[in-house]
Amino acid sequence: MKKMKDFKSMYHIRSIAMTLIAAVVLVGCSTTKQPEVEQGSVTDLYNKAEVFFKDANYKEALKYFDAINSRFPYGSYAQQSALDAIYAAYRSQDYTKALSLSEAYLRGYSQGAHLDYVLYMTGLANMALADNFVQDAFKVDQATRDVSSLLSAYQSFNLLQQNFPTSMYAADAQLRMKYIIETVARHQLYIVKFYQKRKAYVAVINRALALLRQYPETEAAYQVLPILINAYQAIHIPNLAERFEQILQANKNPKFEKIPRPTSSPKIEVPKIF
C-alpha cells in the first residue's frame, strides 16, 4: 500500500497565513461587549496583564490583552499581546477565541516571526474542540464523533512540519498528525460499519475504497478489507471480492503501532519580542 501523500512544496509565509486562515474552525462569533478595563498607557495595561498571566489568571489577563489590541493596535506591545492572548485563551479553555485570535494574528503579522507557535496553538485548539467532557468522562472513542476539527488541526500541524521543521513544536506536531490520521481512519471505518448494518452495500464499497485510498497504512484500512469483500459478494461482483481477498491474505497479521492520545498540556513557550 502506498504511503499517504504529504504536502511537498514550501509555502511563502503569506501563503501559509492565508491557508491557515481558511482552515481555522470558528464555532461561533461573539457580539458581547468587551469587559471594561481602566484607562492607561499601553505599558501600564501590559504590565497588569502580565501580572495576571504569571498568576495563571488567564481570563483576567485576556481582558487586558484585548484592551491593548483594541486601543493600541500597532507596535510591539500589540504584537506581544496578540501572542500572549492566544495562549491565555487556550489555557482558559476558550478554544474558539484562541482560533479567532490566531486568525487575527495571521492577518496582522502574516510576514512576521513566530508563525510556528501560532500554527501549533491553532492545531491544539482545534484538537481541544474535538474533545468534550462526555468523551473524557465515559471514555468515548473520538473516532465516533465529528472529526472536522481534527482535520483542521492536521492541516495546521502539517503546515508547521513542512515550513518550520526545526521548530521546538515540530516533533510533537508529527506525533499529533499520526494520532489524527488513525482517529479519522477509525471514523471512516465507523461509517462503513454503519452502512454495513443497513445492508447499504454500494455505500459500504464507496466508503471503504475512500478509506483505503486516503489512509492506506492505518489499522482501520486493514480492518475494512473483510467488510469490503463481503459487500462485493453481496452485490455479486466476485472478481473484485477475490481481488481484495488476495490483498487481505498478502497482508495477513500486520503489526500496527499503537499511538497514544496526545497530552492536552504540552510544553509551550510563548514567544517574546521584547
Automatic annotation (TrEMBL):
Pfam families for the chain: YfiO (PF13525)
Gene Ontology CC terms: Bam protein complex
Domain of life: Bacteria
UniProt subcellular location: Cell outer membrane
UniProt membrane topology term: Lipid-anchor
GO-annotated biological processes: Gram-negative-bacterium-type cell outer membrane assembly; protein insertion into membrane
CDD domains cross-referenced by the UniProt entry: BamD
Record key words, sorted: Cell outer membrane, Lipoprotein, Membrane, Palmitate, Signal
Keyword Nucleus: no
HAMAP family, A to Z: OM_assembly_BamD
Biological role: Part of the outer membrane protein assembly complex, which is involved in assembly and insertion of beta-barrel proteins into the outer membrane.
Subunit structure: Part of the Bam complex.
Similarity comment text for this entry: Belongs to the BamD family.
Name assigned to this protein: Outer membrane protein assembly factor BamD
Gene that produces this protein: bamD
